[in-house]
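Title: Comparing notes on inverse folding

I've been comparing how different people in this forum approach sequence design from structure. To keep things fair, I'm posting one structure and asking everyone to reply with a full sequence. Here's the target:
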């Protein structure tokens, strides 16, 4: 099974400098579960070669990572919060970057509006399952970073699975989380809203579920939402039932917080945590 993450790799300033971006967290997670993982990205000439070497050592194909700009997309991040600022941004991902791509899952993980509707539409042509993280579509960069509906309307009614967090859901719809879930489910076949340490809400075609996350002593929650998205796609590809999809996604995100920085996640740890994820049906 193959997993491809599309979006900007980033340089993150968080207790020093490290590699980041949805594509990094997602691809490491997929590789850790034995999938063929690769990344489609654009970085700057300032992007450390050792970052790419590290991903290759972890079994991730980086042959589609282009050095196409002077400066890599770079964020200042505070633990447990939204990125504080964007100091540089690389070029947009193009449809040509997906040329001759083959994948069972495509995870679109924009962080700074680098993915267009055209790229999303091309992904749908290629892959059985396409996930879209809305975080990088809802961000506006003016005197810091704020959330708004952004370019969401360009992506409405595409056949993609979407993920966003509770703050993003409210910003996108102007409604509370539960109503935001219903609103977005009119436009996308599957919608998942993560609630931080509280778990996640899922809207499927005929059901709404809530999965309560197990309590853990988190070390680093940066990237947990990216792992959640990757896990959701993998659960769908595996053909799991709805409750098991919810358990696996939430347990995977929770497990990722027990590691420091972008890392593979031990599947035995996920399995252990799955038993502590409480799933309830809200509708359906």
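Reply #1:
Here's my take.
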């Amino acid at each position: 099974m193959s997993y491809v993450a599309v979006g900007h790799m980033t340089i993150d300033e968080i207790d020093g400098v490290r590699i980041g971006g949805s594509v990094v967290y997602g691809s490491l997670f997929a590789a850790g579960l034995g999938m063929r993982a690769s990344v489609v990205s654009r970085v700057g000439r300032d992007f450390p070669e050792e970052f790419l070497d590290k991903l290759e050592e972890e079994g991730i194909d980086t042959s589609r990572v282009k050095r196409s700009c002077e400066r890599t997309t770079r964020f200042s991040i505070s633990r447990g919060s939204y990125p504080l600022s964007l100091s540089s941004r690389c070029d947009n991902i193009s449809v040509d970057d997906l040329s001759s791509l083959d994948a069972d899952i495509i995870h679109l993980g924009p962080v700074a509006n680098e993915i267009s509707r055209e790229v999303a539409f091309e992904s749908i042509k290629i892959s059985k399952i396409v996930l879209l993280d809305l975080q990088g579509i809802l961000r506006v960069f003016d005197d810091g970073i704020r959330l708004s509906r952004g370019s969401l309307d360009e992506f409405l009614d595409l056949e993609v699975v979407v993920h966003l967090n509770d703050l993003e859901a409210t910003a996108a719809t102007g409604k509370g989380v539960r109503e935001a879930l219903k609103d977005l489910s009119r436009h996308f076949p599957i919608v998942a809203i993560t609630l931080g340490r509280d778990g996640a809400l899922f809207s499927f075609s005929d059901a709404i579920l809530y999965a309560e996350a197990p309590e853990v002593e988190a070390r680093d929650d940066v990237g947990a939402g990216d792992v959640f998205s990757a896990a959701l796609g993998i659960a769908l590809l595996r053909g799991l039932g709805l409750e098991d999809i919810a358990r696996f996604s939430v347990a995977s995100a929770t497990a990722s917080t027990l590691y420091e920085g972008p890392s593979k996640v031990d599947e035995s740890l996920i399995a252990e945590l799955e038993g502590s994820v409480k799933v309830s049906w809200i509708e359906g």
